[in-house]
Amino acid sequence: MREFINKEEGSIGFVPTMGYLHQGHLALVEKARQENDLVIVSIFVNPTQFGVGEDYEEYPRDLKRDTKLAETGGADAVFAPSVDEIYNPDHGTVVKIEGITENLCASSRPGFFEGICTIVSKLFNIINPDRAYFGQKDAQQVLVVKKLVAELNFAVEIRTIPIVREADGLAVSSRNQYLNDEERESATVLYRALELAEEIINEGERRVEVVKEKISSLIKEETDNIDYIEIVKQNSLKNLSEIKGSVLIALAVYIGQTRLIDNLMLEV
Amino acid sequence: MREFINKEEGSIGFVPTMGYLHQGHLALVEKARQENDLVIVSIFVNPTQFGVGEDYEEYPRDLKRDTKLAETGGADAVFAPSVDEIYNPDHGTVVKIEGITENLCASSRPGFFEGICTIVSKLFNIINPDRAYFGQKDAQQVLVVKKLVAELNFAVEIRTIPIVREADGLAVSSRNQYLNDEERESATVLYRALELAEEIINEGERRVEVVKEKISSLIKEETDNIDYIEIVKQNSLKNLSEIKGSVLIALAVYIGQTRLIDNLMLEV
User: Fold this and answer.
1) Distance from the B253 Cα atom to the nearest Cα atom in chain A, whole angstroms
2) Which domains occur in chain B, in start order?
3) Closest-CA residue of chain B to A120
4) Chain B residues whose C-beta sits inside 8 Å of any chain A C-beta
5) Hey, are the CB atoms on A121 and B152 less than 8 Å from each other?
């Protein structure tokens, strides 16, 4: 990868992914293509960001399809290292971030953001990009990576794109393919819940607990297994005493065995 | 710093220091000068590698003198950031390394190598050097930084120089200035102990405990406050069942209030 990069000139746009590319990834590639001379997509299902009992083994993989999609989408190169190449058997370096990894996805996925910070640091050092592209669907990840870049002084600009959705509002995700037909229908409840929250807030509701309660009731029509419903400050993920300013509404919900996330950013 | 570097061309040699430069640092600068187009010395007393009750506040500082020494020694630039510039008030990113930070200096200095890995990662990302220079006196630090570079995929070559010693054998160190005349004389016991160990081993002794015992007896003529005496494998810092192969003998000893370290590498 380094040899390839060293031969090329100009700015590098980097899209790190775990593969099984969908429209969200391709929107990242498209943006990277517009803003850089060289576009590199990495495909690596990173074991260190999966916890015990999570879907590391089952996570969908299709390198041939992904490579074709990345190429058609505008990538100049795909970086798809093996696990052994990235983590040697004695690997013992971990990049840890505190301050914004205490709630939301961090609570139910211990080690998740350590895994992300470690792999992102490694990939940034390998690719040395000018810009790296992340989807706003992983809102906490975007904040974590921005903090990582600022605090470890990476010379990388983090660029984001809005959530890409299916026609019925479901946020696109590699994990959507786990859903059977019935679950696929139920899964629209995440977006419907966010729309409901927006509506209530636009009508004047400012109490966090009231909005959460209404979201919760709606979701419970489809599933009892809610991981979290959070309404927090956009930039710090800290709790709000009232819904005001730059607000992030974030959800994680199990539809059957599949954990799905979604979020909405509001200026109130 | 980045603006300065981006204007220059050619390879970058980087010498990270905590300042109060001595002959050891200048030997690093000299080597960097020989091997690179641009030589950058950083001077930063890194608070995160000092523990509670350690000498962060007292650590000697003299930026004016250091800048002149670095320049005379061959540096093109000195990077001396403030603590606030390096660590913002919300700073929460830590780079942690496991496997070689469980013994030697790590035992008595919890958080020490986390502090080193974090600041080294930050400085590497700011300076983006081709080569970075470290003294073999900090043998464990050299191993830790090499592992860090390998595992976070920094595109930096780690270069080392042998321990620089005073005429009577004392390893040069910024902390030597803490010693009063009597302590300065006692301090030679570290090197004398290493010489004794070498002699015994050359005579055929292969038992770790016997060599440690003899070192210990000699040191106790000067001080009762021994932090550690370790005889371990050079590359892994793991315990040896017998003294054979590439061996590191490492000492940390308090002379008065001052903690001094020294080491010797042997091929047996």
Assistant:
1) 28
2) 2-161 (3.40.50.620), 174-267 (3.30.1300.10)
3) B152
4) 2, 88, 90-100, 117-118, 121-123, 125-126, 128, 147-148, 150-155
5) yes
For residue B99, the model assigns a pLDDT of 87
Give the minimum alpha-carbon distance from A147 to chain B in angstroms, rounded to a whole number.
Answer: 8
Provide the annotated active-site residues of B.
25
Structure tokens at B68: 């002149």
Is 0.90 exceeded by the ipTM? yes
Mean pLDDT by 10 residues, chain B (268 residues): 93 98 98 98 97 94 98 97 95 94 91 97 98 98 98 98 98 97 98 98 98 98 97 96 97 97 97
Query: H or E element: which one contains B263?
Result: strand B258-267
Smallest CA–CA distance from B87 into chain A, residue: A151
Percentage of chain A with pLDDT > 70? Answer: 100
Token pair 């992904």 in the structure block, residue: A66
Exactly one of A13, A15, A25, A131 is catalytic; which is it? Answer: A25
What secondary structure does DSSP assign to chain B, as a single string? -HHHHHH--S-EEEEEE-SS--HHHHHHHHHHHHH-SEEEEEE---GGG--TTSSTTTS---HHHHHHHHHHHT-SEEE---HHHHS-TT--EEEEE-SSSSSTHHHHSTTHHHHHHHHHHHHHHHH--SEEEEETTSHHHHHHHHHHHHHTT---EEEEEPPPB-TTSPBP-GGGGG--HHHHHHTTHHHHHHHHHHHHHHTT---HHHHHHHHHHHHHTT-S-EEEEEEEETTT--B-SSS-SEEEEEEEEEETTEEEEEEEEEE-
* Residue of chain B whose Cα is closest to the Cα of A154: B125
Minimal Cα–Cα distance from B166 to chain A, Å? 36
Instruction: Kindly determine whether residue A93 and residue B152, on different chains, have CB atoms separated by under 8 Å.
Output: yes
Does B94 sit within 8 Å of A96, measured CB to CB?
yes
Residue type, B72: T
